[in-house]
């Protein structure tokens, strides 16, 4: 299989080099490293990473700004935040900007490497306790007046039509379940679940599972 291409962005050289070394030894292809946000945004299009491991605190611009810049340059890139901070607002800001997942730096190496693999596969990965925070925020936003219209699960005019199976998978995505859990629940292969999610993303013109989760919650599909 083609190795997952990873870019590491962190302003601490020893940490950055250590993460890059661990990734390489685990079979990932580290295509670039950077200690500054603006440089990372410039380098990313040529490096073409599948996953960017990104520190929240950088010397020039914030990690949240970097996420926005990366997603603008590479809409399909997946960003895994790796930060010393587990503060709730930092997590929410990163996810709203387009980050796929968020881990604190105290995460064990084996868990980190597994998180990179899962991020590359499209799973939103969070340090324990943070996934519930993100889902809770989406539910709060979905309950607001701006999303009242069309939030009862009915199709809106012009909304692409999903198959019954795609809708079933979407409901489980909205509950925060991983691809593996969804596959086990529905008796499908991991690859089949991935294909359903990718088809749904394409139909709805969304970019990742985080956006898909919010879409589903706004329409009451997490009940």
Structure overview:
With 223 residues, the protein is an alpha/beta fold. The protein has two domains: 126 residues, Rossmann fold (3-Layer(aba) Sandwich); 68 residues, Arc Repressor Mutant, subunit A. Helix content is 52%, strand content 11%. The chain has ten helices and five strands; from the N terminus they run βαβαβαβαβαααααα. Strands 2-1-3-4-5 form a five-stranded parallel beta sheet, sandwiched between helices. Helix 3 links the parallel strand 3 and strand 4. Helix 6 packs across helix 10 and helix 7 packs across helix 9. The longest helix is centred in the C-terminal third of the chain and has 15 residues. The chain starts with a strand and ends in a 5-residue tail after the last helix. About 6% of the residues have low confidence.
Instruction: Report the major sheet.
Output: 5 strands, parallel
Q: H/E element string?
A: EHEHEHEHEHHHHHH
What's the overall average pLDDT, rounded?
81
How much beta, percentage-wise?
A: 5-15%
If you compute it from the alpha carbons, what radius of gyration comes out, rounded to the nearest whole angstrom? 17 Å
Main-sheet strand order equals 2-1-3-4-5
- Under the CATH scheme, the architecture of the largest domain is 3-Layer(aba) Sandwich
Structural class: alpha/beta
Low-pLDDT runs of 5+ residues are 145-157
Number of domains: 2
Number of strands: 5
Question: Would you identify the CATH H-level superfamily of the largest domain?
Answer: Response regulator
Distance between the termini: 38 Å
